[in-house]
């Protein structure tokens, strides 16, 4: 989708993408892949194979696979050097960042030079794209939209033009839930395309990406299913479908699709003898698989995917940025289950020179995990020192310049570190009995968490709202805690941890019948969970007693207490 390619909307495990520094003319020839081209746009060429490669490139452009789209466009240009639209495709698929301004401009200049005498529709495509190449996606936005609107007005049956415009306009949602600029317009275009072109994979991909962050992701359920049928070997499509299923709470389906994305990338790499880092989605899919397993209570499996990710990036040469991302994935798996010592013991020493952002993320994770482990052990002075270290680190990183392209940005890391510092500090204040201050601090952490850039690193701390809910339970603000728990379950209905929190809040408010139902729902979500986890025993004990437990005393930093006759196994680091 055009917005993702031009604006770098995706977090990046590796600092570079495939063939980033290779000139268009030197790109290796791709195979013509059956089933990948669901786009059809007639262009001015007498070489049928050039048309086929152009359609393949356009299809992959719509599916967000920029490097492979660029290879297809380059092959079309080799087969027919006079094909202006092939150079148009090369300009659009070059990738974000100031590094490639000259390369985009060169490709666009070739397209403009070859456009004289072409049909009007092709000239309009080229002119619109030239405005983006010249001014960039931000400054050239208005002019590009106006030119594409003129093209669509003149050629209302051109589905590819509508899809390109919709893919460019899809801006996601603001932290308060309001659609971004152009988002409603994009959705109107996509709804029409879903009706007129039900077998176009690019339309379904764009619709899934547009609706995924919205309050109603269920609207894209059918499109997620169609993607797995239309382009099952395209990992970018599988990644989008897996994310949608995960958002809907269908974790089993999500994990199957995400695992197929990893498999598709491995088949792709093996078929062309490419290095591991050229896979478009495998690393991101593995991070999501670890997260999905953690939500389903599969602690061992969550660790397995995190360790597979680390082994994978190490086999690719151990790029520091990739190693830091892999390490935070394993840390998050431990933290999600409250194994704080295991999180603090994750190795964070990497060979080679780290950039300020990479070093900052590594040091932030190290300080936070030491602090949360100290909090669990009651060493409050150590927690205070960890909070202070995180605050200093955040201030230092925020003063550094923003980076270009896919390299980790210090300011993005600063935001993530600030969230972690505020969440840890709020938990510390709650432990000291400073309920009002803890509440204010955790609300700040929650608001910061909502404003994290999608393209930056994921938050490695505990969810601020979950910690806030437990603080409210401890301070006997049960109804407020219940409201937060409900909101968390609505956003991630497949997450067992949130269902458990909701059940605990029901117990605190005296809603015993509802608590039994919520505990039962939690047990269903964790039906394949690791059997040793104490959360399972607590839920089963309550359900077996049909909610006859009395009101429980809650702690802001741990799950609610269990019956006096229950002795859970001691947690061990895995």
UniProtKB/TrEMBL annotation:
Carries keyword Chaperone?
no
Ranges in coiled-coil conformation: none
- Please list the residue ranges covered by the TPR repeats: 50-83
Q: Has the keyword Cytoplasm been applied to this entry?
A: no
Would you say which domain of life the source belongs to? Answer: Bacteria
Q: Which SUPFAM superfamilies match?
A: TPR-like
Give the signal peptide range: none
Query: Keywords, A to Z?
Result: TPR repeat
Recorded protein name is Uncharacterized protein
